[in-house]
Amino acid sequence: MLNLNRAMRNRQTQWLLLAATILVMTIALLLARPVLHLWQKPHGTSLLYGKVSDTRHWYDTHGHNLITHAKVTINSLPPQTTYTDDSGQFWFKGLRNINYQIAIENPSENNRQYTFVTRVAGRTGRFYDLASDEKHNLKEMDY
């Protein structure tokens, strides 16, 4: 303990300790800033709402092809995830007016994710049909 007190009396050691403390605090703030950003609320005032359906399983015109309990994720900051309700509807609030990528996971299909790109401007409504996903159509085209 005596050596530490004696070392702290030295002016050069005090400056070195102060510089090391400032360096450690700066690095900690730089690392913590992106993590703190994930806990913030979305910044925009726009709204995206829509319905999810699959016309490959078209039963009739009463909306039985709407997909319930599908997981819908949007790549906002922070990312938002929701599930469609019993009517196949979902919505996201607090979005900015930019392009977003929507990922939809159908609960009846294992390990299958459909992606769509949409532009949000104000109150935007979209109808997403999983059968119109281009990647899926290219895999299951019948000639």
From TrEMBL:
It comes from Thermocoleostomius sinensis A174. Keywords: Carboxypeptidase, Hydrolase, Protease. The lineage of its organism: Bacteria, Bacillati, Cyanobacteriota, Cyanophyceae, Oculatellales. GO terms for molecular function: carboxypeptidase activity. This is Carboxypeptidase-like regulatory domain-containing protein.
